[in-house]
Automatic annotation (TrEMBL):
Residues 57-135 form the Core-binding (CB) domain. Belongs to the 'phage' integrase family. This is Site-specific recombinase XerD. Residues 155-323 form the Tyr recombinase domain. The keyword DNA-binding applies. InterPro entries: CB, DNA_brk_join_enz, Integrase-like_cat_sf, Integrase_catalytic, Integrase_recombinase_N, Tyrosine_recombinase_XerCD.
Length: 332
């Protein structure tokens, strides 16, 4: 039976030229539309088999497949936000119709909202990734248009000095002060600190661990705990049965609160985010001589490129070469 119903929706039952049987929803309650969908699907399957033609796919088809295959990504919710914005520009558009001019219009539309080049680039990165999948893996396109990124200013690494860190912690309310100090001691991301559970720490071995589904790179992270980190965890005993950091018996979900920003202002610290505590931890480690490969493992970075951002802070090994040049100048 080529057409049948499941509930009120028509489905089609088609046998492809290669013998494969395909059952697919027509997405309609109207029989004539379902019949049209059936005939179109059967025609596309024949042309694909006999003439080697690819079926025409829409941007919506690509988005559905992307979300299904990338559901494991730590940043999938951010992708969804970008895709919802792109829907106004690409919904219903056939993939083969997406060209350089259309992408430029998308770029201009986002810039018109007054956002930064970096914000525009995050949207363009998702668009580019999907188009590349269409070419390289799904074979839905022979080629994809080039997605040109906008120039972004190089962001310097923002970190605190020891004195600044002490001032900030002294100005924070106790529950945030403990979490900030723990972040400086371990380098853990905000979500990993707020979500850390008692079952994830072993104080005897002085170690904590982040499960793969909690890590940005989706790989387990082993976190060595120094004396300060252990003391901060012990301080939380009796606060909450599951979560380590809590406030008045409840888990802490937000840290970038009014209390955080007011403490920064009182401490005289500008242009500083909670995530910069992680930058501070990494910077202090490099300045203390921790090798970059060790820092990468401790911080759970997937790429060594991310760790090289801190390499310029470890120039001690270059000092002998600088002194050598100075002695030559003196001898002359």
């Amino acid at each position: 039976m080529p057409l049948y119903k499941r509930g009120s929706i028509y489905w089609v039952d088609v046998v492809a030229p290669n013998g494969e049987r395909i059952r697919q929803s027509a997405g309609t309650e109207i029989k004539s539309q379902a019949r049209e969908f059936h005939d179109k699907l059967k025609s596309e399957l024949w042309r694909l088999s006999k003439l080697g033609e690819r079926p025409r796919r829409s941007w919506n088809d690509a988005v559905v497949r992307w979300l299904k295959e990338q559901s494991h990504k730590a940043t999938i919710e951010t992708d969804k936000i970008h895709l919802r914005w792109l829907d106004a520009h690409l919904s219903g558009v056939m993939l083969c119709s997406i060209n350089r001019r259309m992408i430029d219009r998308i770029t201009e539309a986002k810039l018109a909202e007054g956002v930064s080049n970096a914000t525009v680039n995050r949207i363009l990165e998702v668009l580019r990734a999907i188009l590349r999948k269409c070419v390289n893996e799904w074979e839905w396109l022979d080629k994809a248009p080039q997605v040109r990124m906008l120039r972004e200013p190089t962001r310097r690494i923002r970190y605190l000095t020891r004195d600044e860190a002490k001032r900030l912690i002294s100005e924070l309310p106790p529950h945030l002060a403990d979490m900030a100090a723990f972040s400086l001691a371990t380098g853990l991301r905000r979500a990993n600190v707020t979500g850390l559970q008692w079952s994830q720490v072993d104080l005897d071995r002085k170690i904590a661990w982040i499960h793969p589904d909690q890590a940005k790179a989706r790989k387990a992270i082993s976190v060595p705990l120094n004396v300060e980190a252990v003391a901060l965890i012990q301080k939380q005993l009796g606060g909450h049965p599951e979560r380590i950091f809590s406030y008045r018996g409840r888990p802490i979900l937000q840290v970038s609160t009014k209390a955080w920003y007011r403490a920064l202002e009182r401490a005289g610290i500008e242009d500083f985010r909670w995530h910069d505590l992680r930058h501070t931890w990494a910077s202090w480690h490099v300045q203390a001589g921790t090798p970059l490969f060790a820092l990468q493992e401790m911080g759970g970075w997937e790429s060594s490129e991310m760790v090289r951002r801190y390499a310029h802070l470890a120039a001690d090994h270059l000092a002998p070469y600088a002194d050598r040049l100075e002695s030559l100048m003196i001898n002359n």
